[in-house]
UniProtKB/TrEMBL annotation:
The keyword Iron-sulfur applies. Keywords: 2Fe-2S, 4Fe-4S, FAD, Flavoprotein, Heme, Iron, Iron-sulfur, Metal-binding, Nitrate assimilation, Oxidoreductase. SUPFAM superfamilies: FAD/NAD(P)-binding domain, Nitrite and sulphite reductase 4Fe-4S domain-like, Nitrite/Sulfite reductase N-terminal domain-like. Residues 318-380 form the NADH-rubredoxin oxidoreductase C-terminal domain. NCBIfam families: nitri_red_nirB. This is Nitrite reductase large subunit NirB.
Length: 811
């Protein structure tokens, strides 16, 4: 029977969780298509606060990598919004005009930042805080500007403000109300919070209504309704969110504040469901993941036609992700005549607890400074437990654990106690997973049960449960260490050491011998193992093409619309009439819609159809420029002494020589070079992984530069006299990076991790340099030209360029 087609609009946290639930229950039930308006795979939005606060990086917050979509046969269109739903025809139309039919449709479009409708809100330097782009914008402004104002003293505003302080900005939080987080905290707790944040350097303006954003094109300040003003270079609006409902509304689906759904997450339109922040259930829209994941579970079962208990709404608990602030709040916060409060205010230790009780049931919790009891109290609140027989001490006292705290015993904790509030995972579920699946690390528990996979605060208690369940066999170092991926308990370094020691020669062998808990591996470990094996055994290892990331497998970059780009090699960015003619002829012959000069001084042909790829390569007769690979991308050069009056060195020739030497070499991440003939630096060598700058009588080598997301100026590694010295030093440097970096770690991150001084010290040793260079030279012998290989090898052509083996994953 033909599989039904399930379409998901919104590649975010709630929508993709529904797909995960469906795949867990019945993996082959649907053909699945996902449209996402952002150019990334599904990521953990919650962690954006930690990205801004420098506790993690964007690379580390992806919940599902590109390969996950491919492995699960999901067609993914990223950077492509759905513009219209046509319920009569059961189709959706995207912003590019793509029409996709559905049998079942899930709308999970989330929310947008609410931007105050005041004059000047569209000026440069005014942003919301909702996605990676917003986060990057703020980080960019912080590099060049000093003053920031965050409007809104709620959860988001305070987390943003803390991040901007960490980025070195002078931050004011402008709040409408007389105290912070008025929806979650009472006055006492809010004052304690304010004092702690002031001690951390945050400044506050209370009871201020912004009336105008000042400045010409760019923001320079704010004016308030009382006539006062404040100067600023950046304004972050954190005044709440607005569910994205327009699409549903235009399709005639019932919309109130959110898209109205019933207890099965059905809208009023047949076969159309809504989930997440865009959905309104019993007149409530939620803005935290826990309820959205509960909705997701129900929806997955409903869509699969399984027996399902309806979603009846959620009570949520809140915590703030700011260092040294420990607070928790759930339910009601203000006491009145109908409630009785248990209050503890220990000013000396900075602890405040307030439990509100009505009719012998806990109806509200506010904790500041000590949140150990939050889980226990939250359970009492949700279960509406009768507390009439209890004393205030026994209600308040930490009988067991919770709140992500790891300093209390877990044995007295009931199995039903929720350990991970975000994902609704109980102690019993975690214990069972540890026992039945042989789990020994927190990461493994996370991938198995989802506990810890969202805000991450419960990881401490998950570690405690591991220790308690494993008893004597628990190994604390192992439990908390960063493993290569969830398939193994070994770290990257341990895996590499084992491969070396045991002489393992294939990814399968590594997985078998090292006891991978998933025999096929996953999208994280397979490309990493393929890289490490090739790096360690350059002569003997047979590259496993199917273990590579998608673009490397195809030797072409897949584009937004499912076509590919072709970028031929042009050594040193130098071309000639013959190559240009070939490019022009191919462009005409295959109707290639766009020819574009790239930032790396190459010519990209964009919009090549998959079936034309090999013919285009054949007609071009040029080598691949590897614009898709974790390898040397380009060596950008200036014209140097051959033409320029200021040129001190022949940069073009050096660039060509470098590119010819290092092309195709596998590196942990992409590697870019630039060669400039003088410090004017026309080839932008200062923002390359390796930048070479000609000076009188020699060359300066700059390393760890990055012109992309993690903008970083290169550090001076050394000054050398001859081109030969340059070649040698670069060889040794690249090989040291290859051997010590984690797979997918750019040099800009690696150099900060291992330290410039350390790298200098290693490379100063002539013997070590010689050894590294020799190993690199051996590695370079293993590569062949991939386009040519595809042309000669019928099997490769059939497998990768003719069949529809892979669904489209548009990255
Ligand atoms: C900085 C920050 C910190 C947070 N911290 C916490 C926290 O500590 N705890 C907590 O529980 N929650 C937290 N949240 C809230 C949590 O991230 C959200 O509740 C959750 O992400 C909502 O999931 P969603 O799938 O409904 O929406 P989203 O994750 O926003 O996903 C919706 C996706 O749909 C896409 N989209 C919209 N329209 C279209 C269209 N027409 N076509 C295609 N795609 C479309 C959007 O681009 C987006 O990628 C935080 C949020 C932020 C911004
Ligand atoms: N730790 C967490 O759980 C966490 C962290 C970040 C974001 N989030 C979620 O993200 C969403 C957005 O967060 P948020 O803090 O923007 O929303 P929010 O609605 O919780 O808070 C907005 C705050 O802005 C204030 N405000 C409104 N208008 C204002 C004005 N004109 N001037 C000054 N202040 C004004 C309000 O009084 C309120 O305190 C929420 O759903 C939140 O739950 C959660
Ligand atoms: S970097 Fe110096 S040598 Fe090269 S083109 Fe610019 S000015 Fe000329
Ligand atoms: S409590 Fe947030 S991930 Fe577990």
């Amino acid at each position: 029977m033909e599989k039904k087609h399930l379409v998901l609009i919104g590649n975010g946290m709630a929508g993709v969780r529904v797909i995960e639930e469906i795949l867990k229950l019945t993996p082959d039930a649907f053909h699945i298509t996902i449209f996402g308006n952002e150019p990334y795979p599904n990521y953990n939005r919650i962690q954006l606060s930690n990205v801004l606060q420098g506790k993690t990086t964007v690379d580390e917050i992806f919940l599902n990598e590109w390969e996950w979509y491919r492995e699960n046969n999901i067609t993914l269109y990223t950077n492509e919004a759905v513009a219209k739903i046509n319920p009569q025809l059961k189709t959706v139309v995207s912003s590019t005009g793509r029409i996709v039919a559905y049998d079942e449709l899930i709308i999970a479009t989330g929310s947008s930042s609410f931007i105050l409708p005041v004059p000047g809100a569209d000026k440069q330097g005014v942003t919301g805080f909702r996605d990676i782009q917003d986060c990057e914008n703020m980080m960019e402004v912080a590099r060049t500007h000093k003053k920031a104002v965050v409007i809104g003293g709620g959860l988001l505003g305070l987390e943003a403000a803390r991040g901007l302080i960490d980025l070195g900005m002078d931050v004011h939080v402008v709040h409408l109300m007389p105290h912070l987080m008025e929806r979650q905290l009472d006055e006492t707790a809010a004052i304690m919070l304010k004092e702690e944040l002031e001690a951390q350097g945050m400044k506050f303006l209370f009871e201020k209504q912004t009336s105008v954003i000042l400045g010409d094109d760019r923001v320079t300040g704010l004016r308030f309704s009382d006539g006062t003003e404040i100067e600023t270079d950046l304004v972050v609006m954190a005044v709440g969110i607005k569910p994205n409902t327009q699409l549903a509304k235009e399709a005639g689906i019932n919309v109130n504040r959110g898209i109205v759904v019933n207890d099965l997450m059905e809208t009023n339109t047949p076969n159309v469901y809504a989930v997440g922040e865009c959905a309104e259930h019993r007149e409530i829209t939620y803005g935290m993941v826990a309820p959205l994941y509960e909705q997701g579970k129900v929806l997955a079962q409903r869509i699969l036609g399984l027996e399902v208990s309806p979603y009846e709404g959620s009570v949520t608990g809140t915590q703030l992700k700011v260092s040294d602030v420990d607070l928790y709040s759930a339910g009601e916060i203000i006491d009145d005549k109908s409630t009785k409060a248990i209050k503890v205010h220990n000013e000396f230790e900075g602890i405040y607890k307030k439990i509100l009780i009505r009719d012998n049931r806990v109806v509200g919790i506010v904790l500041y400074g000590d949140t150990k009891d939050s889980t226990k109290l939250f359970r009492m609140l949700v279960d509406k437990e009768d507390v009439s027989g209890k004393t205030s001490a026994s209600i308040l006292d930490s009988g067991c654990c919770g709140g992500g705290q790891a300093d209390m015993s877990v044995d007295s904790m009931p199995d039903t106690e929720i350990v991970c509030g975000c994902n609704g995972v109980s102690k019993g579920t975690i214990v069972e997973a540890i026992q039945t699946k042989g789990l020994t690390t927190v990461d493994q528990v996370s991938s198995c049960t989802n506990a810890g996979r969202s805000c991450g605060r419960c990881k401490g208690i998950v570690g405690e449960i591991l220790a308690y369940t494993l008893g004597d066999s628990f190994d604390a170092t192992k439990a908390n260490k960063k493993t290569l991926c969830g398939c193994t308990t070994l770290s990257r370094d341990e895996v590499v050491a084992e491969i070396k020691e045991k002489g393992m020669m294939s990814t399968k062998e590594v997985m078998n011998v090292l006891g991978w808990n998933n025999e096929e591996g996953c999208s994280k470990c397979r490309p990493a193992l393929n890289y490490y094996l090739g790096m360690l055994h350059p002569e003997e290892y047979h590259d496993e093409r199917d273990s590579r990331l998608v673009n490397e497998k195809m030797h072409a970059n897949i584009q937004k619309d499912g076509t590919y780009s072709v970028v031929p090699r042009m050594y040193g960015g130098v071309t000639n009439a013959e190559d240009l003619k070939k490019i022009a002829e191919v462009t005409e012959k295959y109707n290639i819609p766009l020819v574009k000069l790239t930032g790396g001084q190459r010519i990209a042909l964009l919009g090549v159809k998959k079936e034309d790829l090999t013919n285009v390569w054949e007609d071009l007769g040029m080598p691949s420029g590897y614009a898709y690979g974790k390898t040397l991308r380009t060596v950008k050069t200036c014209v140097g002494s051959q033409f320029c009056r200021y040129g001190t060195q022949d940069t073009m020739q050096l660039g060509i020589d470098l590119e010819k030497k290092f092309e195709r070499l596998d590196t942990p991440h992409k590697f870019k070079m630039g060669v400039s003939g003088c410090p004017r630096n026309c080839a932008e060598a200062g923002i390359k992984d390796m930048g070479i700058v000609g000076i009188d009588g020699g060359f300066e080598l700059y390393v760890g530069g990055n012109g992309g997301t993690d903008l970083r100026a290169g550090d001076l590694l050394c000054t050398l006299k001859t081109e030969e010295d340059v070649m040698d030093m670069i060889s040794a440097y690249i090989q040291y990076y290859r051997e010590t970096a984690n797979y997918l770690e750019r040099t800009s991150t690696w150099i900060e991790r291992v330290g410039l001084e350390h790298v200098k010290e290693v490379l100063q040793n002539a013997e070590v340099r010689k050894e590294l260079t020799a190993k690199l030279d051996r590695s370079l012998t293993r590569y062949t030209e991939p386009w040519n290989e595809a042309l000669k090898n019928q099997q490769i052509r059939e497998k990768y360029y003719k069949t529809e083996e892979f669904p489209e994953v548009l990255v």
